[in-house]
Structures are given as structure tokens and as C-alpha cells.
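Purpose: get a first structural picture of the assembly so the mutagenesis plan has something to point at.
Setup: two entries, given in the order below. No constraints added.
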Amino acid sequence: MAMAQSPFDLAPQGENAFARITHNVARVAEVSKPPRGWYIAFGIALSLLSVFGVSIGWLFWQGIGIFGNMNPVFWAMPIVNFVFWVGIGHAGTLISAILYLLRQNWRTAINRFAEAMTIFAVICAGIFPGLHVGRPWLPYWMFPLPNQMSMWPQFRSPLEWDVFAVGTYFTVSTLFWYMGMIPDFGTFRDRSTTKVRKMVYGLLAMGWRGSSRQWHRYERAYLILAALATPLVLSVHSVVSFDFATAQLPGWHATIFPPYFVAGAIFGGFAMVVTLAVPARQFFGLKRIITVGHLELMAKIILATGMMVGYAYSMEFFIAWYGGNDYEMFTFFNRALGPYAWSYWCMIFCNVVSPQVFWSKKMRTNPWVILGVGVLVNIGMWFERFVIVITSLSRDFLPSSWGYYKPTFWDFSLLAGSFGLFFTLFLLFCRYLPMVAMAEVKAFHPSAHGHGDEHH
Amino acid sequence: MSQVNDKPSYWRSLAELENDPEFREAIEREFKVPLDQEPGSPARRRFMQVMGASFALAGLSGCRWKEDKLVDFAKRPQGMVPGEARHYATTMEVGGLAVGLIATSYDGRPVKVEGNPAHPANLGASAAWHQASVLELYDPDRSQSPLNDGNKADLAGFDEAFKAKVTELKAAGGKGLYILSGASSSPTLAALRRSVAEKYTQSKWLTWDAVAPGDEERAGTKLAFGKAHRVHLDCAKAAVIVSLDADFIGPAFPMGLRNARAVAAGRDPDAARMNRLYVVEPAFSQIGSIADHRLAIRAELVKAFAAALDAAVSAAAGAADAGPGQPKPGAAFLSDAHVAKFVDALAKDLVAHKGTSLVVAGPHQPAEVHALAARLNTVLGNVGNTVSYTEASDEPSMREQLASLVADLNAGAVDTLLVLDSNPIYTAPADLDFAAAYAKAKTRVAVSMYADETAKASTWHVPLAHPLETWSDTLAWDGTLGIGQPLIAPLFGGKAAIEIVARLTEDVAWTPKDLVRRTHKEAVPDDRKWARLVQAGLGAPGQLEKKSPKLEAIAPVKLEGGEAGGLEVGNGQLELLLTPCSKIYDGRWANNAWLQELPESFTKLTWGNAALIAPKTAAALGVTDGTPARLTVGGQSIEVPVMIAPGQAVGTVKVALGYGRTSAGVVGGHNGDTQPTTPVGANAYKLRSAKLHRFGSGLSVAGQGAPLHLPTTQDVHAIDDVGRKGTDDRVPMLVREANLAEYKKHPDFAKHVVHHPPLLQLWEEPVKYDGNKWGMAIDLGKCIGCSACVTACQAENNIAVVGDEAIRWGRELLWLRVDRYYSGKADDAGVVWQPLPCQQCDNAPCEQVCPVGATMHTSEGLNDMVYNRCIGTRYCANNCPYKVRRFNYFNYHLDKVGPTPWHGAENDRHRVRAMVFNPEVTVRARGVMEKCTFCVQRIQNTKIKAKNAKRAIKDGEIRTACEQTCPTGAITFGNLNDKQSAVAKLTEASRAYHLLAELNNRPRVSYLARVKNPNPELV
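Result (C-alpha cells, whole complex):
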């Protein structure tokens, strides 16, 4: 990549560039009072989180009848939300692991961010399957826990595969995220002015001294974890898609699901990254680290993956026709023209039409356009799951059992509440943890290559 | 409402009873025999003593009402195993139509009834009504104490007041004494009625039932034969059957369940002869749903149709002694090409089947139609073959009787009115204004199971005992005597109607048991014989003498107004058709939640009624499914939502009676002081008048705004085009049908409707099914969609009631459903049924996806649900292509079972409700999946029994609840490994197919394709 086109062109330059990077990132966590915007955002997030808490309390008290689920739509918004959040949880590891392996150095500005997002999204995702079951105090029965009755989970069930796929993904992502933060925790520790901070960051830094040997070990371990995480990016959403693909329901039972879900997840994940990155760089003064150049690259990925999901949508229709299965054909007709057509066209508009603006350079370098498209894609990806889960279930084989699903207040409150959880965690992350991988940004900063200063 | 526990004297120790001389005497004359013990066996003797004790005449001196006592189970009688089911024969009547039942009781608690196979009226089948009777038994809304002017009173108080009144009336020779009784066939009640007439010479006894059949038939046969007769059908012998708006296979028709069995048996396409059904009716009925030819015309046109048919048949048959036939009537609709062709072909078919044809007139059709039916049957030589006549009483019709009562009330002639098991304030035609007239009687005594509308307006109300709580006797339509024995002492202190009437005629109190025994003492003097009679529950069948009445000339029918009209009528001239509800009948079961929640056969509507309108008429009126509409006729109007009913006659608006109760109870709606609930549905009685008794024209319909979301369990007719087309496309694949000729040519046509690649297995089958292999076969050619099986399943399997809101959400919990699909054009639609229990697939898609292994395959091929293990992921239900799995979204049984096992129900009210639970079946809690188990508890019990007796299970020994109650025998359950079993043979039948077999689920339920036998001339 030629230097002139590097997204780092706008990064802190000149003398003491490294110091300025450190300063820019660390001061977010060090200032005694975060910006007012953070308080407002945190207040909103906390209120939403309390909505989450109340909803869960009510759910435990009343039973899952408080949701709109019905016969035949036995899975509804909680599962839509689950897949939605798992999808969002994709971009983090993709950026961390795959782009790392592909030596896409620009990722360093956003990877920490994206990884945090991944972990919080997976937390949100993981809560839903637990909550949506009929007896939400018992989902631990899905874990292979030794017990005196020798009762084991049923390993033929894709839900059981989910438990392992999502669990593994969460574990590896968390490790990856944490390990990446160790050098930065060292920096935080060293800059600490209070005893508590020193102590906490000291513990988190695990004795990081920045020696060559440590760096060497660190780089190796990072590479290994990246290599481990890479297949997970593909596997998690593939396995999640098996929940649907292995079922015999028309509209679910399709071989295209694994790649289609993965592409969609990356698409949605990147959309979420830009949705978070644009305001964050604004609030925390990180415009020179997360540059427009970075945003543009992400816009390109959104455009590319958006076209992939668009292809998948049309391919589903083609196969439904080409396969000659009447039930399948009906399902797709029904998606586009039936009672849920509004959700289908909403999805098409958000996921296929809206990213097309990124063909224009002017658009994809405008952070606010990117943010707008990001939000639309998030909505679109939520609707994609809605379309898959609900339209397929609402009209399956026997017309006698067809029904029209309508979400209830609690369906929405739980979704809103999960955003509360997500943003609470995310805002706490912004406030207390190194939001940008300082060490990695520095490693790819022009100054690191000994010719930084000459170039402007 | 806590009265249920206020009567500890139900329970009395056995020792106390044994020392009681009266009790000893009672034992000597004891007759209670369990069906499963031979009379005379030692165990039986002992058991009789004990059970006899429960009903012993151990009355306390000074008590006016002798009390029946039950036995204390703490001192267990010998031979009585706690928790073991016992079966007792009993009987029950609805609108005077009796059936025989066998009640199953656990530890003195009846929980289920089945039809008595020996009883000729129902042959072992039963209707949803009978199935739901156990829920009514434990309904805490039933009246629990006498009321005096609406205030709680006690029996002693009533007795005193009544006795004073009786003395007064006796002195006056019964002047001013009126008794209004519901339709009843009870010989004991009839005997008491005679006794009342003797002792109170000036008293009057009247009968009123809102919808019971018989009146028009008596009038019609009188027209035809000069004397009133009762019509008896023998459908088994009929090759061609014509229904003139008669749903003669429904439980509201005399011997309807028996007819259903006979008609269905005649629809075997492999038999030498398959019957052919012609149905002329305004709205779909059960017989209409299986008709080979159905002509949908307004009810008022049926008279002209019958006349036209008579004209055509008389001309062709030419029976000289039968007198002249009808002249061709001048009704406009008869010139319609389709109708004319129908009449022509039908007449030809009838004449071709002289002696083996049958014409049936609907109970609500006017006398002329009955007369013409009688004439046609006579002309066609059917009398003595497919139809026979016995003499009937010449009493005036019930509506005339009620009108005369109202006239006497208004004239101030009524001093005391005793209303027995009838609710005229709610059911009387609106123009009689019965409520106002009723208030003019000085003393008004209402004896009813609920403190209903009439009871509330009475000076005295006495709770009526439930049929399962008291002794009774009935006469079936063919004269068969049925004896009903109590299964439990009256829970709420109810009294039998005969007990109350006996207070008028006798000086001392009589128990129902003695009253019934006395009635039959002459015919059955021997107590041992009587014991056997009680044990069997019925006497010798068919005691009525058959007559061969001579036909008299029938004047040409008079056609007035709409009766001579064309096929189409405009708004304002629409026909209103009032029918008894197939679920809650005349409204008496409005408080029965099982019946309220039972999806109505055609509309699949629960919890309410609707104005059913043909698609064409609805389009003209600008209304659609759910549109609230104002129905106005004769100055009266009601508001009721519209439902589109394909296949209904253009211009007919059908509304079910029985809804909109204001004093039914918490379930059906009441306006009492505590917990008032809004009435379920709209009260169509408000539109009823002397003129428009069951149907009549002059109705206008006005839509009133946006459609409501109705609580139906299947999509309404008016859905989007994509869905409509998708449905229409796949119905022929789901419910396979052919005409007899096609079937004869391609007996395996059903197997070729859907073509699929060979269905292979990836691996060896994990289960070998070495022992039993349970399977089911459902004959779609026999299913009449009556849905009795659905309620039977609910009663057997402790299925919760979820309520109308939950049904609107689509959260019905019924394990078994009867799918209804319309075929053909909307205005001339046919209908097909498909009962859908769990298909118990060998390759069960549900089992594979459960992450906790809560649904497992047994070695006998059942998909068992392990409720304890289920965490409620509902993945199984998603993956079930038949969508037969049901989920407990809430803790629907919470009020009955309490939040925890050590809590129990909150109050007595709910504790009584919990008594209806079948102890053999787990009561499911919140958050678990449930589904049809093939009645695994019955399978297991029979297996244990057979194993203990060291024998094999006989074919047909295990019967699922749905199979047992099915009137037509459409469901067969059994062991597929036994190649000689009925189910194995049906599964091998050429027209057997599996639903969605192409998915390779390998379902265990086979469907037998429906074969129709149309007249080639009309195809």
C-alpha cells in the first residue's frame, strides 16, 4: 500500500507522534470527568438496561407467554435478536483475526473497538436463547454437566451445537481481546496517578514490561490466537445457520445458509462498527486515529458484503423456483407478497439498496452518510432475521396451522433492553479501557518505519 | 363461593352406616353394580354394600330431605383398589334425546364419560356435549344454595315455603299451579306428571325447549297420515339418502349418533354398495360436509324444493294408492338450470332405488316438509325398510305451549309456576316478552343447575343435581329405557327435578333412587334383575310398536313471500337462520369452558358466535370476516361479527343460538355482584319471534366498521391472495379425494397424488419395533367433522383451557384438531375434514432437534414427551411439519394446582375444578411442550392388565379417547405388527396414504382417502 493512500495520513504526525497517540487514547480513560455526551449516553444506556432487567423479571414471573410467540411461530423475536446480535459479534473477530492474518494494517485503528463490540454483542446474544426457553431457569441443562441421573444433552440437536459454537467463540474472542489489551494496560498502569488505578491496571497488565522477549511471545501468541479465531468467524454463524438449515421448514431448509449467514454477519458487524466508530471518534477526539480513510475502507466492505447478501436473497428465490418444491416456492412468494411483505421489502431496501450509495466516493468518505447507512444496515439485518424466522414459520406445510405473529410490548422492551446492556458495557469500555490498540497503531505508524517525519 | 366445603356430612363412616338399621335394609335392596364385576361375586357383594352405603337412606330424623351419603375412603372397602378406574353405566339426555354412557370414576370421582356401546342411540359414541359434562360437574359456578328472591337461603326454608304452598294449592285443586319443564324423556318424570295431573286436576304442565326436535315432525306426520307419528330412520339400509335441511347425523337429531355410524358405514368404497347422499340445506351441516351432492338454498326454499321433488317422484313412481303428488310449485328458484337438473337427477335416482332410499326432513323445517318427506318415503316404498313410524303424542308444539303459558301468565291465572330445568327468560322468543309475563306469577320456583336468568327472576331457586350426581331414567327415541346412576353425591347440594316434583305428589320425601325404582317396579319387580338393569344402564332396545300409517292426500304447499323467491335476495330481505350451537346447544353449556373453546366445525370459531354469510352475499353487503355487523329483523337487532362461510346459501345469514348469556357464570358471562364477566358472543334469541322461530326472511345486515380479530383456530376465509392460492394449491395433496368411478379404476390413486424420489434411510433404523408397533388409521371418508374427538381428548388428557385472548394469539392447546379445508368455488364450496393428532413419526423431526432429549422414541414407536426434562426451546414444534405440538406459554393450570405441590389451589372454588383431572395423565405446567401421546396411559394400563393375565393384548382392546368417542368410527388405533389387526389392514388399504410422506418423516398415522359417490348424471 502506497503511503500516500494510507489511512494513517491523518494520524498524529510529526514530533512525538507516538506520545500523542498514547495521550489521545489514554486521556479518555484518565480525565477525571468524561465528556458530557458520555454521561448522557450512559444515562440512556442505563435506563435501557433497567428496562432489560424489568423485562427479564416479568418474564421469569409470568412465563414466556408475555412474548408474541404463538403456534406456529414458536420462535420469534428473541431468536431474531439472538441471531442479530451474534451476527454483529462477527466483525470484531474478523477484523482482529482475518485482517490480521491478511496483513490489513489499517485494522489497528478499529480492531479493539470492534473486538469489544463483538464480546458485548455475544453477551447480548447469549442471553436471548436462555431467556426464550419455556423454563428460563433451566437452560443449563443444555450443558454437558455430569449429574447423578446420567442425563446428557442430545448432541444431534443444532441447538446443542450452538451452545458449543457460541461458547467457543465467546471464549476465544474474549481471550483475544484481553491479550491484545495487555501492552496497553501496561501503558495505562504506567500513566496511572492514583493507587487504585495503578493496582487495577497493574493486575490487568499481568506484569507487562515491554521487553523484547515479552513482545516476541506476545506476537507469537497473538498470531496463534488469530489463527485459532479465524475458523471460528466462519463456524459460529455457520452453526447458527444450521439451527435453520437442518430443520425441514421451507425457507429454513437451504444449503446456502452457512455462507449467506456469514456474509450477512460480516455485513451487519461492519455496519455496527461504523455505527459505533463515527460517534465515538467524534466524542473522544479520535478523528486522527480512526480516520475517514478507515471509514471508507469499511464502507467498501459493507458495499461488498451487501452485494453478497443481495446475491443470496436472489439465489434463494432462484433455487426455490429451480428446485421445483411447491412448499419452498410458496414460502418465497409469501415472503415477498404475503402478509409479511413489508418486512421483506424493508430488508431489501436497507441491505441491498442503501449500501449502493457507497459507489460514490463522496458518499463513502462522508462519516455521517456512513453512519446513516450503517444504521440502516443494522435495521435491515435485524429484518433479515425477522424475515427468515417469522415468515417461514408463520406459513409452513399445512395451511390449517398458519398464523400471523405480532410482537408484544415485552418483545420490544427486551430488544431495547439488550441495546441498553450493549451500550452500557460499551460506554464503560470506552471510559475505562484502551479504546484503540495503541501499541498496534504505533507499530504501523509511519514513524515506526523510520521515515515518518520526512513525509509531510 | 366457599360453600363447597361447608357440607362435611357427605362423608360418613362406614361403621356408623353398618349399625344403622335403615342402612341394613338399604343393603338388602341395593342395586349398585360395577360393570367390571359379575353380580353375585363375593367382591361384588362387598362392593355393593359399600357403594350402597354411599346412597343409603340413612336420613336423620327431622330432616325433610333425605341425604345420600358417600363412603369414607379412609376405611377402604374390600376389593376397592385406590386409584383404579371403575366404570358405571349411566344415561344422559339433551333436549329429550337420550344416550347411554359409561362413566369412569377414580376413587369416587368421575372424570370421564364414554358412550355405552350397548345403547342403541349412540352405540358407544358420544358427542362433545357428553364429553364435556364432567367439566360441568365440577363447575364451581353451579348454583350452590337455594335462593329466595335472589338471596341465599337454605333447603329447609324452601321446603317450608313450598310445603305451605303445596297445601294451599291442594286445597284449590291445583288451580293456578303451572309446571314448565324442559324437554325430557324420563318415565319417572312422566309418571310424576300423571300423578300431578291426578292430584291437582286444574294444574297445567307445559314443556319448553328452545331447539329440541319433534314438534314439526309430529305436525307433519299428522298432515301426511292423519295422526302424529315419530319417525325412525334406518340409515344402514339406505342406498340413496336425501336430507331436506336435516343434519340427521348430529347429536341434536334423534338417534343422530346412531345415524352417523350407519351412514359412515355405508360409505365404504370397497363394499358392494356405497350410499349416495343428497343434501339440500341453507348452511353447512355435518351431513352436508360429506354429501355427494349438495344444493345450498335458503331454508325457506326447502319447502318448494320438497314439493318439486314430490312432483317429479310422484310422476315417475306412480304409486296409485298414494294419492296425487304435488303440482310443480311456482317458485322462481326452481327454474334455475342447476336446481332443475338437481331435482331431476335426484328424482330419477330415488325412483331407481325404491325401498332403499330415504328422505329426511329437518326438525326445524315446517310441517309441510315433514309431510312431503313422509309422502316421498311412502311413495318410494321405504316405509318398513329405511324408515319406520311409531305413534306419537298429539300434544301441541312447545312454542304453542309456551305461548299459552304466557297468555295465562298475562291473564293473571298463574299463581305458582314451577320451572324445571328450563331457562325460558333467556330462550323464549323475544316477542313473547316472557320476563314481563313471568313476573306476574306469585310464586316462581326455578329448579336449575345454575342460578340462570330465570332463576334470578324467581321467588325461589333450587339447585338442580347434575346427571352424574343423581338417579335418573330416560327413554331413547326408539323407546329404549336407560337408567342413570349417580357417580358422586351432589357436590353442591343439588336436587333432582323428580325429587322436587315428588314433593308435590307425595307426603314424605322420596329420594331419586326410590322414585326411579318405583317407576320400574312393575316392569322389573325382581331386585336382582333391576340390579342387572342398572349395571347395564339400559333395558331391551326398541320397545315401540311400529305402525304402517296410511298416506292421506296432502294439499299443494302454500308458498308465501320469500318461499317462492329466486336464489338471490337483497339486503333487508335476507334470511335469518337460527340454529342450536353445535357446542353449547341452546346456551345451557355457555359456562362450559371446554365447549366454549372447542373450535366450531366449519368456522373454527371459539368463544362466541358469528353471523355466517356466503362469500357472494358478504361481498354484496360490503362485509368481511370479523366485520361487526348489526342484524335487524322485525324491529329487533343485535350486533355480532360476520364470518364468511363458503358453501352457504346466498342470502342466508346463520347465527348460532346460546350466546350472550348474562347469568351463565364466570366462563359464559354473568352480571352478578362478584367478578362479573362480559357475555360470550351475541344473544340471537333477541331476534327470535313466533313468526321467525328458526328461520325467516326480512333480515337486514349493516357492517359497522373495521373487522375484529376473531378467536379462530384456523385462518378465516378472507386472507391475502397469496395465502389463498397457496392453500387451494395444496389442499388436494393433503386431503386426497376421488369419485367412486375413479377409485374403482385406480384404487391406489391416493398414492399417486404426490410423487417423490424413493425415501431412503441413511442408516439402519435404531428402533426395531419387535413387540408392539402402535399406529392409527383415519378414514377421511368417514369423518364428519363433529369434533367430539377434540373434547374427548381434552377430557382424557387434562388439556388446559386457554381462553379467547390466547386463541386470538394463536396459542390453542388442544392436542387434536380437525382441519377444515374448503374445496371448489367459494360460493359452491365443498368441505373436507382432516383430524390431525400427532403423527408419531418413525423419523421424527421433533426428536432430532431437542437439545435436552425431552422427546424420545419408544421401542413401540411413540414419540414420548418427557415433561420433566423439557426446558421449552420449542425447536421440536418448529420442525414438526404437522404443527401438532402445543406449548404452555403460561401456567394455565395454576389456579387449579397451585404454584407448588405443597401450596395447592388458592381456594375451594379451584380445588373443585381440579377434581376433573384424569389422575393417569400429568398436569403440565408452564414452559413445557405437550402433544398427543396416542393416549399412552391407556396403552400402558392395558399392557399391565394383559401382562398380569399372561395374555396378549387383543386387537381393539386399547382405544384412544378420540377413537372411542368418534360417532362414525373414522379413527382406528392398534398394533401395526399384528397383521390381522384392523389398523394394519387399513394401513395396507389401497387408498391409505401418509400426510407429507415426501418429507420422509415416516408418520405412523395413515389417512384413508375420501371417496365420493356422485350421481353420474350430475358430475
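The CA atoms of residues 69 and 864 of chain B lie 42 Å apart.
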